[in-house]
Amino acid sequence: MKMILSVALVLGLCGLVVAADKVDPVGTWKCDYAIGDQKRTCELTIKKDGDKLVGTMNWPDQKDEKIKDVKLKDGTLAFSAVRKFMNNEIPIEYKLTIDGDKLKGKGASEFGGGKQEFDIEGKREKKDK
């Protein structure tokens, strides 16, 4: 009986590990964040290109910025994007945890000699069926 319980426990734990790798980031995500007191929005689109993940980010004043170094590990999506405004190019590193159709995490950049981090949250848009 102990053997059966042990095997069931091991298989159950293996199933949890496999489930953690089954996070699917593909889709279009509507995101909200704040820089200081200013609330902002962006849209993240993730697609599969063979075995790789690729995508773009859109802001109200900047469209189709390709994201770089896209990695998905243990339910965390990491990538970078360049934000362009007021003749500045600011690289931003994102680290987002995906839970179903929600994501949550941080963006970080260096600007004006200092590092700035902000919280970001998003929801995946539902596909029309």
Give a brief rundown of this model.
With 129 residues, this protein is mainly β. It has one helix and nine strands.
What distinguishing features does this structure have?
129 residues, mainly beta, nine-stranded antiparallel beta sheet, 64% strand
Number of strands: 9
CATH-derived topology: Lipocalin
When the domains are counted, the total is 1
Which structural category fits the helices and strands?
A: mainly beta
Strand content: over 45%
Strand order of the largest sheet: 4-3-2-1-9-8-7-6-5
The N- and C-terminal alpha carbons lie at a distance of 48 Å
Fraction in helix: 10-25%
Strand/helix succession: HEEEEEEEEE
For the CA atoms, what is the radius of gyration? 18 Å
Number of helices, counting only DSSP H or I runs of 4 residues or more: 1
Describe this structure in words.
It is a single chain. With 129 residues, this protein is mainly β. The chain has one domain (24-124): Lipocalin (Beta Barrel). The chain has one helix spanning 2-20; strands at 27-35, 38-49, 52-59, 62-66, 68-73, 76-85, 88-99, 102-111, 114-124. Strands 4-3-2-1-9-8-7-6-5 form a nine-stranded antiparallel sheet, with no helix packed on it. Strand 6 and strand 7 (88-99) form a beta hairpin. The longest helix is centred in the first third of the chain and has 19 residues, at 2-20. It starts with a helix and ends in a 5-residue tail after the last strand.
Structural topology:
Blueprint (H helix, E strand, L loop, with lengths): L1 H19 L6 E9 L2 E12 L2 E8 L2 E5 L1 E6 L2 E10 L2 E12 L2 E10 L2 E11 L5
